[in-house]
Amino acid sequence: MKISLPKKALTFPCPCRSEKFKLPWLLALLLMVCGPAFGQTLKTFKSKVLSPIKFPVGGASVQNLKRGASIYSAADGSFTIQAATGDSLMVTAMGYNAAYQVVSETEQPNIVLSVNDAIVQVQSVAPVQRMYTSVPPSLNVASTGAVYNADINKTPTVTFRNTLAGRLAGLYMFQGGGGPGGDGASFNLRGQAPVVVVDGVVANITQFDLEEIESITVLKDAVGTAMLGVRGSGGAIVVTTRKGKVDKQVVSFTAQTATQKSMGFPQTLGAYDYATLYNEALKNDGIAPLYSAADLEGYKNHTDPVKYPDVNWRDLVTNKSSSLRRYTLSATGGNKFARYFVAMEHLNQDGFFKTVDSNSYNTNNNYKSYLIRSNVDVSITPKLSTGIYLLGRILNGNEPGATTGTILSNLLNTPNNAYSPINANGTFGGTQQFQNNILAQTIGSGYRQNYKRDMLVNIYLKRTLDEIAPGLWIQVKAAYNASLSENVTRNKTFAVYQPSATTPTTYTMYGTNGTQANGNAIENQTRSDYEELSIGYDRTFNQKHGFNALVIANRDNAVSNSDLPYTISGGAARVAYNYKGKYVIEATAGMNGSNRYPNNGATKMGFFPAVGLGWNLEQESFLQKSKVVSRLKIFGSYGRTGNDNAGYFTYIQRFFDASTAYFGTGASGNTTITEQPLADSNITFEKAIKMNLGINGALLNNHLSFGVEYFRNKYYDLRMQRGRNSAMLGNDWPDENIGQNRYSGWEGTIGWQKSNSRFQYYISANISLLKSEVLFVDEVFRQYDWMKRTGKQVGQLFGYVADGLFQSQADITGKATLDGYTPQPGDIKYKDLNSDGIINQFDIAPIGNTKPLIHYGLTVGTSYRGFDVSALLQGVQNRFIYLSGGSYWAFQNGGFGQAYKENLNRWTPETAATATYPRLNVGVNNNNQATSSYWIKSGNYFRLKNAEIGYSLPASLIGRIKVQTIRIFINGYNLLTKASSSLQGRDPEVFGNSYPVQKLYNFGINIKF
Amino acid sequence: MKKYIFISTIVFVMVSVISFTSCRKVEREPKDWFGANLVFDSLDRNGIVAGFNLNDIYNYLPGGFNRINNSAGAGDFLDAASGDAVPSRTNAPVEYYTNGRINVLNNPDPYWANSYYGIRKSTIFINNIGVVPIDSLTKRYWKAEARFIRTMLYFELLKRYGGIPLLGETILTTTDDLQIPRNTFAQCVDYIVSECNAVKDSLRKESDITDAIWGRIPRGAAVALKCRVLLYAASPLFNGGGFETDATKKALTGYLTADASRWQKVIDAADEFKLLGYYGFNPTSVGTTFAGLFVTKRNIEVILQKQSANSTTLENTQAPVGYGAPAASQGLTSPTQNFVDAFPTVTGLGISEPGSGYNAATPYTNRDPRLAVTVFYNGLKWLNDTTRTYEGGKDKPNISTVPVQTRTGYYLRKFLGNYPSGTTYSSTSHNYIIFRYAEIILNQAEALNEVGRVEDAVTQIKLIRARAGITAGATSRYGIKVGINQAEMREIIRNERRIELAFEEHRFWDIRRWKIADQVLNGPLNGVKIVRTNFVLTYTPFVVTNAVFQNRLYHMPLPYDETTKNLALIQNEGW
């Protein structure tokens, strides 16, 4: 191909002097930023991007490294870019290594990319996925962040949620449990819960094949999410699935098998320690000891395990490890008529409960999924294209009949000496208080299954309208999602037997030995349909004025069970203009609403506009020659977003059934109906005003990249009950649109990367600081400033301020004490904030953390020849845990509860100096169990969240067997954790009786042919 | 130009598609939902739905079984805070009343929100029932029933807090000024009395209440409530005897000055009650009637009950712990030795009085027959077995696998079904009695004694004792000595009230209104340790716990939350 030289050298005048400049409203902005003219001879560089087998690569990014301008290749791989001789072009496309091309006077060949098999992801210049569109990175003025397929695949997990922890600035992930199929961490994006958008459709689905995800992008600011209208306030997680490319077919098969181990769990006390401490606690309460010396001896010597049981319940019913297996088969390829990506996956995750062979069914917790993905794009004519994207899921769960949650909470409710799991005569043991034998609940209570199946269809038809105006197109899109969740119970009851204290061969029975009771019920049935019509216009005039417009009308209609449809309808628009890719202005807006408003289910419409500005400084003459600065962009946005939180027709004052009333000597039940919580007929959306400012760039030939952003978001019209919700009203107060919170913070990213054909490495870090402040809560009367909620963090914990333990009777004398409570040595001492000599509601102040939350992540990776290694570290600071209740305090649950290792370190006169737990007592203690800073523990932690080592067999070895690549890999999840020692081995994320977070060691092989 | 036409056409199509779809004929609001217009429906000739609304208001009648801190399963009886019992579980919130831990934030029985919720619901019914085209007689009954329950709730607040805000016929809305001050004690008493007077003739006559609608408010209930509120108003604590130094606070929690004539109103109300006819003591054989009273739904002694379905709940929570499923029980209440000692012998004489026939070696023989119906003591028949509360006995095994057992050597027997010889429980009627005939008699006796008509008081007490099965004695005075003086008679009446109305949520309030709580609830609460050696039982009293009482506990503290939300509320003195 011959590069044609332009007839006349183009000179770029200062835009404000351009005669053709027709947008005077931009003038002011451009006046500020226009730089001096630069004289460079530019020509139009034309070429084609091809895959290794010479198939065209569409959508590849071509960037002029010298000038910053970037464009994308067309479907046939061709592109045109302005460049001067000597400029360096970088061509990148997902799945390929970056290719570099120096523009020369001579004929240019096609640019052939090489496949990137290394799993080490170096800087991406892929287009930024936004709502309903994608934009080149340099033209993006929204606050975004993205993770790509290679990184997502490194985490052996069921939902893609867990793959995001620590990877993106501003996104804080919290994993509250690790049960089979239920390990999804919760999203927290700049303090809010974002919506999940899959291929342009809002769909809260996070549980599918990780290999089918192309990228996950977070949209954090107003200009990024305003188009979502009343669903935009929380931000968005935009998931793009893999599509076929014009390329040779690649079939990929991955098999993985992982070993799961539970992370920390509270460590319970042995029976002897338990009984000893129990007696001590009773003594402290002034009550005679419960356990005799003979009892204690029995617990110590384990002579009679039936009479003196000492059962580690957790060891009794759970295994140390369990397995996770995953098999994924996918195929992708295509030509200019049709392109496809299809995948199948089977995943089988076991839980940790022990099973017995005598059951003909499985009682263990288990999760199996069968997923099918089919993404097909078809070019019907060169101008008309269509696509059908399908996802089918079958998700099956299993658990013991008594339910996993019940068993887990019983593990922490049941002391080691409560009863013998099996009596001398082989029956299940138990007592009046403990009629739920944990072993029986695990293996003898039948089983329950959950069947979920759903289908998501996403279809579009797109026509380019170049004949009307070049760059104009129109598209219709529809999506349908049907989901069903069915519970099958095949559980049974069991009896437990307590041997008589005097004659152990006679038993008292509790409960009944039932037969298996079978039932099924539809737990949840939802369906939703989505329709969208969009018109877009994308054109650059005179190589200067980039213009991009998009208008959308859409309607999202969701039905859940027998509820009336919840419909969000309206439209959205986006207009973006850039001058030579240097100055960018973008306006987005959503105008929609939902049908949950007065009167008669009307659709209340809201208008949510946002505007963003960007300035690519590297294109200014004063930076153009810089050897240091490769890219530099200043950007910002401001706008309003909405959150539809109307509930289910809460504006209607409803009357509904209440408790049954009884009349008549036959005590027959009678229907009742009563006024429901008061309705708020002035209900409206929650809203937010968001501001985002940022700077990002790359230095030293793109090796060092960085970004810093600041945001300040004010959420208002939040629905909440008034603070002054006096009960004298006589009913529950409605939520009203009165709350106001502010979230603000800083986010920073920095990365270093270097690569050549054999060796590449990168290191990148992100850190986020999130600050929140309550602006309005309709504060009740507070006597003292420290009691006020306004101005404090959102969700600030309040309680007494602990001041150590009372060490002696003399220490107590003269100290302020809890109203009505006579403390003893070993009780918690509180600060008397108002110095009135009494600890009461006026001494309640903010406790726990009052500083902004900081979370961070660090990723490193390298590859050399066939080897690749990567790791992700993730951590959080200024987080705290309030340890309380039956999973931390001794002898809760009405005095029948468990006790823990840390209770050994209780206060006694002998251990007064070192005690970390107050004196023991049984059950409730108003002084020591009052909400106070004593129970605040550091929740900071630092995890080696993920690490992977992979090896790709050399081509010389596998070429002969017609296989493209074979890669074997070992990765892990939650490999190392550094948390506060005050948690006593508890996991910083799951520290109570939820299913423990799992640590995984995963081995896998991937074959592509 | 063509472009613009095209684009406009597209936009037009888009807009019309959207608006067209929203014009479809669809259900736009849930049509299965009932609003006020369907509950109070001008077309509902039988008042079916309005009747459902009234049914719910009945749910607000006060109950009393296992009530305190019942959010987490079975709670405790309020009487476990009166000195008559202690909860078997240690550190139960009901003990806050006797260990001084009650404060503005920590009151297990606030009853504030619950009352005002019931008051609102009653007023909604009263104000709206007018539009429902039911027959006028039914409408009159219904309206009166709702008004009575509303009045009852005001009384429940009054006895706890003193004067409270009276809302009248107002249904508050969120836009109203909710800074509403308390009415004085006197205003509240007047209001309750006037409401009782207003509704009593509109309520059903007892004879008109068929078995099918048993539980509906009868006329007697309105008079009984009036009698009770007047009794409280005449009592020492409220009748000018308040401790408050601040006159405003004193007026909120009682009359500023004493007036002995307030007792006469009690006598008159009791007389008015008796004129209703219908009520009396069961004429059947002595001894069984008292036990049967609490497990029979319809009874001429019963004025008003909180109705409930038959169940074995009380047996399962209160009976002794020595039985297995399905009669397994938790024995949650431990009556005190102090309470057991309050029962006279069958002669009507107190156990320490000469001639009573009390023998400390066999303490439960020849006692007032009500003792065996009220508490489980060692040796009492139950489920074809014998209660064994001696140390190591099956109902007090002192072993770790039975961590909850009696703390005093006794369990609560009252209200439970009659199962001395059965082998298991069957569902039993457990209606909670709010008013019964014996209370009216005791109210009148107390008032008569206070106005100096001591012998008239004796006459009333004799009725109670005769029904209880106390022997009449040679003087036919059921143990009451000839020539008894007012002070002595006062003690007898108070003791009679304690044992007759035990565990019916009277004692807790009685010791307050008599202003004796600082004496009777400030000291040891005893149990009995029974040791069995060679089948011989020895009984040794011991101190279970020491009760403490502060004067501020005579009135409950207003919930702290409410006082910060409604700054017009004045907190009671001492809190």
Descriptive account of the structure:
The complex is a heterodimer of chains A (1009) and B (575). With 1009 residues, chain A is mainly β. Chain A is 7% helix and 45% strand. In chain A, the strands form 13 sheets. Chain A has a 22-stranded antiparallel β-barrel. In chain A, strands 10-15-16-13-14 form a five-stranded mixed β-sheet. In chain A, strands 3-2-5-6 form a four-stranded antiparallel β-sheet, with no helix packed on it. In chain A, β5 (88-92) and β6 form a beta hairpin. In chain A, α4 (271-284) packs antiparallel against α5 (293-301). Residues 1-39 of chain A have low confidence and may be disordered. Chain B has helices at 2-21, 36-39, 48-58, 96-99, 112-128, 136-161, 185-200, 219-234, 247-253, 262-275, 288-293, 313-318, 337-341, 369-374, 437-450, 454-468, 486-500, 507-513, 517-520, 560-565; strands spanning 85-87, 302-306, 333-335, 375-376, 381-382, 385-386, 411-412, 432-436, 523-533, 536-547. Chain B is mainly α and 575 residues long. In chain B, α8 packs antiparallel against α10 (262-275). The interface between A and B is large, with 96 and 98 residues.
